[in-house]
């Protein structure tokens, strides 16, 4: 007699749904890898051989005959000094992850202000993607300024019902559509925090591409904050890694906590070299990507209107960075199937990122415009939208 009870019909249906979604995900990934036309080819989606080829350019950014790094010296220090200069800060420290960098920064500020409360947006990365790391690991207490899909306002910061030691602003706010405030709005929010005797920390994982929308250079944007975290892989296509920049005394303290958190890694030269390559090769191109993302977004809107879809939304209508959202009134699995079929049949993949269900019959996905996206004209985008809708319509009419 079997020790395993037979599955109920509901359990079998659930298992088959999970299996079907797993197969669809595998098809989506395979289609993205084989597609001839996409808007972006992210480094993490490439093969190991392709990723290692990134270091072919390392000789252009660093003398490879120099000794290798040990526990953060050598090439690591070169990257840190370069980032500090780009952001106009006194010093910077390299971290293996942004999660660690921000926990350390905010822990240091809590000790200096005497207040462990961090005011932040409900859609910010620590609240959505870090499994309560602030409170569980660092003893910090997050309070939400707002949950609206936009940046916090100065009035909301001034009127927050309890005191806080640090205001954390994610620039841009990725889960709201990579949205940014205007320069005047940003300066007013920072001033509101200062009025409450709080320090300001920027989660600048994607700060590199924010200069176009804010209309200011990196050092002027970063100069509004007391400390800034930046990522090296999200837009610069490095292997991994992050940096925390700010006053020299804060960074020295952060290095101590980096060691305590397990971030004092013996050798980091592959990742650091890839970050230097990203700063050299990708950073100058980001404004071009932002400008073309706005062309692509407009073509999406016109393409969906011409295709006669009952409702479609591009958000923001004019992208603030080179990333934006597309919303459609259909289930995520149906939209994924249509996107995969288009790629399999035509070699063009309009939607490479997953579709995220966000209510009954409503889903959104992210569009990332990088170097491959520059090859798309407005007419190319509109034609691809027509092809996509032609494959979507039979699926939703079943």
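Q: What amino acid sequence fits the structure above?
A:
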């Amino acid at each position: 007699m079997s020790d395993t009870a037979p599955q109920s019909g509901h359990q079998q249906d659930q298992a088959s749904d999970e299996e079907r979604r797993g197969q669809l995900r595998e098809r989506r990934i395979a289609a993205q890898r084989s597609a001839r036309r996409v808007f972006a080819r992210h480094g993490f989606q490439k093969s190991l051989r392709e990723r290692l080829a990134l270091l072919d350019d390392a000789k252009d950014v660093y003398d490879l005959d120099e000794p290798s790094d040990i526990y953060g010296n050598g090439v690591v220090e070169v990257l840190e000094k370069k980032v500090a200069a780009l952001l106009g800060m006194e010093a910077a420290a390299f971290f293996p992850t942004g999660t660690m960098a921000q926990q350390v920064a905010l822990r240091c500020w809590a000790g200096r202000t005497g207040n462990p409360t961090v005011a932040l947006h409900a859609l910010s990365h620590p609240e959505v993607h870090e499994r309560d790391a602030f409170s569980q690991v660092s003893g910090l207490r997050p309070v939400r300024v707002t949950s609206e899909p936009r940046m916090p306002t100065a009035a909301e910061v001034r009127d927050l019902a309890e005191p806080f030691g640090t205001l954390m602003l994610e620039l841009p706010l990725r889960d709201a559509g990579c949205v940014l405030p205007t320069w005047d709005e940003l300066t007013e929010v920072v001033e509101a925090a200062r009025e409450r005797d709080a320090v300001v920390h920027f989660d600048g994982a994607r700060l590199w591409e924010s200069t176009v929308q804010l209309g200011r250079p990196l050092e002027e944007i970063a100069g509004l904050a007391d400390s800034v975290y930046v990522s090296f892989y999200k837009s610069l296509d490095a292997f991994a890694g992050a940096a925390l920049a700010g006053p020299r005394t804060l960074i020295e303290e952060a290095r101590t906590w980096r060691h305590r958190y397990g971030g004092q890694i013996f050798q980091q030269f592959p990742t650091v070299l890839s970050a230097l390559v990203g700063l050299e090769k990708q950073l100058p191109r980001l404004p071009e990507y932002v400008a073309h993302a706005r062309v692509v977004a407009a073509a999406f809107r016109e393409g969906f209107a011409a295709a006669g879809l009952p409702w479609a939304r591009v958000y923001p209508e004019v992208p603030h960075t080179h990333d934006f959202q597309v919303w459609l009134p259909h289930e995520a699995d149906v939209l994924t199937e249509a996107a995969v079929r288009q790629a399999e049949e035509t070699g063009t993949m309009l939607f490479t990122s997953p579709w995220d269900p966000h209510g009954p019959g409503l889903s959104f996905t992210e569009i990332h415009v990088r170097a491959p996206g520059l090859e798309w004209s407005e007419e190319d985008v509109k034609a691809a939208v027509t092809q996509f809708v032609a494959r979507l319509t039979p699926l939703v009419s079943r």
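Q: And what stands out in the fold?
A: The mean pLDDT is 95.
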